[in-house]
Amino acid sequence: MDIGSTIRTIRKRKNITIAQICEETGLSQGFMSQVENNKTSPSIATLENIAAALKVPLAYLLLKKEDRMSIVRVAERQHTTSGSDQLKVSHLGKTKNVSMVLVDIPPGASTGLEPHAHEGEEVHLVLEGRIFAEQGEDAVELEAGDSFSWNACTPHLVRNIGDSTARVLISIYKEGEHDLI
After folding, report:
1. Which pTM value belongs to this model?
2. Is the distance from CB of 87 to CB of 111 less than 8 angstroms?
3. Distance CA 127, CA 135 (A)
4. Which long-range contacts (CB under 8 A, 24 or more apart) does 132-141 make?
5. From CA 3, how far away is CA 16, in angstroms rounded?
6. Per-residue pLDDT for the chain (181 aa), expressed as one digit of tens each?
7. Is the dihedral of CA 14, 19, 25, 31 positive or negative?
8. What radius of gyration, in Å, describes the C-alpha atoms of the chain?
């Protein structure tokens, strides 16, 4: 873990000197320097004191870089296609277990010729247009502002039943590393 670099980055961003951290925590400047250069591993109690002096949650200091906030700018989104109708999928963000995508479904297009199933759970929000969603024996027509969710292990299908492109925001939960849609 690179806790020392995280501490140094936060300290500098907040314009706090090592001396100020040491004054508040009772730690020596030499020790703080070793911590910031990842030459020593402080105890949890020491990290709690440092976090308090920096006014950040202890948990933030312990996060791995890949578990911190990730930003996807609109111009930097990854785009793929999915299904037999080659639906446009914009990837908005992803953590280890959750992905969020924006799917554009042209009029008459669907997620496939037949209902399909896969691991995970999904929550959908219809942003634009009208869609038909089917899962097993359940079927419903939805329009902008409506939302629905399901366990994706049961075969399901989504089809645009409107005259314009439907846009659906989907949050997908699936344990472990995964590629979605």
Report:
1. 0.74
2. yes
3. 20
4. 132/158, 132/159, 132/160, 132/161, 133/157, 133/158, 134/158, 134/159
5. 17
6. 689 999 999 999 999 999 999 999 999 999 999 999 999 999 999 999 999 999 999 999 998 887 888 889 999 999 999 888 889 999 999 888 999 999 999 999 999 889 999 999 999 999 999 999 999 999 999 999 999 999 999 999 999 999 999 999 999 999 865 554 5
7. positive
8. 24
The residue type found at 98 is: V
Instruction: Compute the distance between CA of residue 14 and CA of residue 46 in angstroms, rounded to an integer.
Output: 20
Domain end, chosen from 19, 46, 67, is at: 67
Same domain, 108 and 43: no
Q: What is the CATH classification number for the domain harbouring 147? A: 2.60.120.10
Among candidate residues 19, 165, 123, the one with its CA nearest the CA of residue 11: 19
